[in-house]
Amino acid sequence: MGKRSSIIKTLRDIAFDHSDAHVPDLASMGRELGRALHARHDEVIEALGALRERHRGFERWMIAERAKPAVSVLVMAWPPGYATPVHDHGGLWGLEATIAGALEVESFLKDGTDETLRSTGRTWLGPGDATWFEGAEEHVHRCRNLSRHDTALTLHVYGGDLAQYLAYEQPGPSGHWIARPRQSIIAGRLTA
Asked: What is 132-185 written as a DSSP string?
């Protein structure tokens, strides 16, 4: 249990240290988290590998949260081939780093009415890679586990509690999108 606690605490501390400012330097946070994930890869996999074996679908696990400034740190387990709906982050800033596996992140820009979304590109993340987004209402994205066989694990740091967000659906070929409120479900807590 010591190693699990140690690496989880390290990741939590990096996230908290870099998010003390109202507008954190997400690039620096991503670099430091990436360094820790690369340097301690075996320890991270040993600590969190059981989440890859659960086979219970997409899960969010809380590592830690802080009220001032507001920050939450989570680990997510992505079953093979799983893709999120296109979604926003309730106006929060965020950082996503891959722990194990590979993730594709497709970003979209929404217009002011939420009816039109335009793809602005894709990013592919392997272990230790990170991407981030500012707390802009216009940013939405969809994430997908690129593996057909293995569960991917990712670390997420958000500028607050992502309890509610909007998921976007395209009901037909019109190009219009419909925003539907969603609730974040936490599977459990990981001890830091």
From this structure: EE-S-TTEEEEEEE--SSS-EEEEEEESS---EEEEEE--STTSB-EEEEEE--
What is the per-residue pLDDT across 7-52, written as a single tens digit (0 to 9) for each?
999 999 999 999 988 789 999 999 999 999 999 999 999 999 899 8
Residues in CB range of 97: below 8 A, 6 or more apart = 30, 33, 34, 37, 125, 128, 129, 130, 154, 155, 156
Strand order in the sheet with 86-87: 117-125, 103-110, 139-145, 86-87, 164-169, 178-183
Query: Around Cβ 72, how many Cβ atoms within 10 Å?
Result: 24
Asked if residue 117 lies in contact with residue 106, where contact means CB atoms within 8 angstroms, the answer is: no
Name the β-bridge partners of 153: 77, 100
The pLDDT of residue 170 is 87
Burial of 53 (0-12, 13-18, 19+ CB in 10 A): exposed
The answer to whether 114 touches 179, Cβ cutoff 8 Å, is yes
The rounded distance, in Å, linking the Cα atoms of 191 and 62 is 9
* pLDDT single digits (tens) 114-171: 578 889 999 999 999 999 998 877 789 999 999 999 999 999 999 999 888 999 998 8
What is the C-alpha radius of gyration for the chain, rounded to an integer number of angstroms?
A: 16
140 beta partners: 108
pTM: 0.92
